[in-house]
Amino acid sequence: MRKRLLPLFIILLLCLIFISTKKVVASENKTTFTPDELAWIKAHPEINLVINIGPAPINFWEGAEALNAKGPRPGERFRPPPGERFVPPPQKGFRPPPEQRFGPPGRGSNKPLVKIEKEQANKFKGVASEYLKEIEKITGLHFVPVLLSYQNFRAAFKAIEDGEADLIPMMQTAEPLPRGLILTEPYIQIPVVVVMSEKSSGYTNFEQLSTLQLAGVLPIQHKLNQMGLKTSLIHTSPTRGLIGVSTGEFDAFIGELSAISHVLTTTPVTQIKIVGELPLPSNIAMGVSSRIKELVPIFNKALTIVSSNRKAAIHEKWFKMTYEKKIKYGPWVWFAMIIGSFILISGLLYLVHYKRRLKQIQTAVDALDPHLLSANIDRNIIITQVTEALCKITGFKTQDLIGKPLLALGSPADDHPNAMDVLWQTIKEGDSWKGEVKIQKKDGSTLWTEAIVSPLRRESENSDGYTVIYQDVSQQKHYENLAIRDELTKLYNRRHFNTLAPELLKRSKEEKKILTLILMDVDNFKKYNDTYGHPEGDKVLTAIGESLNLIFKRRSDLAFRLGGEEFGALALVSSPEEAKTITQTTRQHIQDLAVIHELNPPGVVTISMGLITLNPEEDSDIDTLYKKADEALYKAKQNGRNQYVYSN
């Protein structure tokens, strides 16, 4: 009898261990979040999604119709329709026209949103879907698809604004954001690759691309501008672009690997290959409604908990065909004769590549001083060598970095949009570049460094690439940050306003943008402090600081606490109407915080605002602008508060 019960006892014991282990794992995940975050998760068990169908395999809906315009049949000549040729403006700081400003690459559509029934939720597929499932496991939240958008970006954003949905699973971090939308940390990085005819010999440096007939989606032009390549890009879809390369209409098509991979698996395009990669990959994040801004830090924390093995598995599952399909051969051509030899040759080539890769990595480790935070890059800014010390401090392995663009490790910390262009132009001319570089470590944290990029010369006067030497200045940056930020609100302080405002004024003239200065003052704030106490007053100032950080988050936006209950903001805009919209949105956002203030007529905390704009061709200085904005603020107070006055 005892012998019979022993197996049952062992099985029961294993079950208890398994259940306990799951509880421990769940408990460990919960301890990652603060009590306030756990309470928020409990109060918001479901997050509604609007699925904006994007390039497979990142974000798509199973069974949805193809969105790209159909191209010609194989062998036919393709010519872009009239008006599709896009010539960028000559000045720096390229921005898409208004109708193209929001959303992923592509034209978008006017097709209305489609309501998703609960039983259809499992049709949501791709990388974004996989990551959301991981976040669900970690947080206990449930992400529910409720609306389907056929690349109707404006309708998707309107659904977020109207409260019909809370989150868009796929947003490019480089794209301008509509008001009321916040981005999470990027969850995937997509290489931007160059596709040419299989007969092409490719290119040896990026400058050669300027001489070619290039095609690509509109945002690629901005990446080329950042690299200092002044070329006219023919604006077209991935399908048409790849067919154009195949038929000889274009010399090359530049696009995201995900979109190209999708085209190659759905369209019979032949005689093409991937010949290179730009050093500016696309970062994909989730777009979250500002109504549930608390989700963003929760999502970011959960993202760090997802194991590297699981992330790799997701990548392998959805991108496994990408680089294998550099050239896609027709299924009926030479198939029977070459299939056996192809397998054999592939195996031999992989073995040769693997050995060469190991030798390259070992050479990289041996060539540089292991104690330096240093790396070598080639003329295309691709990492060729890296030191042990740099790997140790960033958390990456040598093989993680070699062969990747330098920007995968970090980028200039300068907020100026042309910072990378300046670096590229400087080293191309044979000079050294020095500046602050913000490195993102493997665990997602930031490493602040001072970097020097110098030409690497070997046995001749010509540059054979570049050496990058980093110096860790994180502690120094921490103390600098304390000196330029207000401790309570975390906004920039008045001293830093005096430093940055003249610089932004200069930029507005260089980029032909309108400079916007907004001054803000909390209405009846002294009465609030007298009634509710200074600790509660500090909470109000903190909440306003958080709101301004959310609203003024573009690279050309700056928000400040100028003293007491007075705040300020600077921005570069395209029109006075845009400046007025931003100002009104800010005023409404503060009122919508709904902080009770019985001695303020609306019954809640509000702000009064003074707005002034300066056209790029006009001459003025910051002191004059500040004085006029302050006068406008005073008029807003006199007119009854909780409003703004515009001084042109």
Blueprint of the fold:
Elements: H1 2-31, H2 35-43, E1 46-52, E2 60-61, E3 114-115, E4 124-125, H3 127-139, E5 142-149, H4 153-161, E6 167-172, E7 181-183, E8 188-190, E9 192-197, E10 214-216, H5 219-226, E11 233-235, H6 238-247, E12 252-256, H7 257-266, E13 272-277, E14 282-289, H8 295-305, H9 308-319, H10 335-367, E15 373-377, E16 383-386, H11 388-394, H12 398-401, E17 410-412, H13 419-428, E18 433-440, E19 446-457, E20 463-472, H14 474-484, H15 494-510, E21 514-522, H16 525-532, H17 534-551, E22 558-563, E23 566-573, H18 576-592, E24 607-614, H19 622-638, E25 644-647
Helix pairs in contact: 3-8, 16-17, 17-18
Q: What this model shows, in words?
A:
With 648 residues, the protein is α+β, with helices and mostly antiparallel strands. Helices cover 39% and strands 22% of the residues. The strands form 6 sheets. A 6-stranded antiparallel β-sheet has the order 16-15-20-19-18-17. A 5-stranded mixed β-sheet has the order 11-10-12-9-13, with helices on both faces. Strand 15 and strand 16 form a beta hairpin. Helix 3 crosses helix 8, helix 16 packs across helix 17 (534-551) and helix 17 runs antiparallel to helix 18. It starts with a helix and ends with a strand. 36% of the residues are buried. Mean pLDDT is 78; it is low at 17-31, 65-107, 320-334 and 357-369.
